[in-house]
Amino acid sequence: MNRIAELRKSIGLTQKELAKKLEISPVTLSRYETGDRIPNFDILKKMSEIFNDVPVEFIMKDTDNDKIIEVLDKIQDMTDDLTESIYKTYINAFTKLNDSGKKELFKYSNYLASQEQYKANKTLNAYFGGKKIEVKDPDIKIIRDKDTK
Predict the structure, then answer these.
(1) The whole model's pTM is what?
(2) 88-99: buried (b, 16+ CB within 10 Å) or exposed (e) per residue?
(3) Residues of the chain with pLDDT > 90: what percent?
(4) The CATH number of the domain where 9 resides is what?
(5) Considering 32, 51, 66, 88, which has the largest number of Cβ atoms within 10 A of its Cβ?
(6) Residue 115: what pLDDT?
(7) Residue 140 contacts by C-beta under 8 Å, 6 or more apart in sequence?
(8) Are residues 125 and 69 in the same domain?
(9) Nearest CA to 76 among 148, 142, 124, 128?
(10) One domain for residues 24 and 77
(11) What is the 3-state secondary structure (H, E, C) of 114-134?
């Protein structure tokens, strides 16, 4: 039995109850518990909260590191594709503006960047099976154990 099942049982939830809280199917939760699938980071964050702020590293302790790295690689690919798409959309919109519109956009962008509620999170750290994961908006890097010594 892996940590997800242990934690679920420790707070007295059935698979069906936890799946409902996570907004996933009981079959998906069962696959997480048997190790056939690895939850994405959003699901892990929800689990952490449901399990009384248990660290993600603790939840994933018994998970195969290769599977985790594979999931993180997929997240990186999706992030790259999304980032490229967003930049292309902004550049396309920018090129349609006249000089006055470009100046206004620049001023507004600087204003937003100066407001605390609009600033990007600088770094989010997570630890998976001895690997430190730094999530920097929008980059994800895997730092191997040997790099942290």
Answers:
(1) 0.44
(2) eeeeeeeeeeee
(3) 16
(4) 1.10.260.40
(5) 32
(6) 81
(7) 72, 75, 76, 79, 133, 134
(8) yes
(9) 142
(10) no
(11) HCHHHCCCCCEEEEECCEEEE
Query: What token pair was written down for 144?
Result: 């191997």
Burial (CB count within 10 angstroms: exposed 0-12, middle 13-18, buried 19+), residue 44: buried
144 and 103 belong to one structural domain: yes
Position 139, amino acid:
D
- Is there a contact between 35 and 2 (Cβ–Cβ < 8 Å)? yes
The span from the CA of 117 to the CA of 22, in Å, is 27
What was the pLDDT predicted at 38? 83
For residue 101, give every residue at least 6 positions away whose Cβ sits within 8 Å of its Cβ, in sequence order, or none.
none
Local confidence band at 133 (pLDDT 50, 70, 90 cut-offs): low
Q: What is the pLDDT of residue 130?
A: 55
* Encoded tokens for 141: 């890097």
Report the domain count for the chain.
2
Q: Tell me the CB-side half-sphere exposure of residue 113, using CA atoms within 13 A.
A: 6
Residue with tokens 């890097």: 141
d(CA 21, CA 26): 11
Q: Element (H or E) spanning 104, and its range?
A: helix 99-114
**pLDDT tens sequence across 80-130:** 776 777 778 878 888 888 888 888 887 888 788 788 777 765 555 555 555
Q: 96 is written with which tokens? A: 């349609």
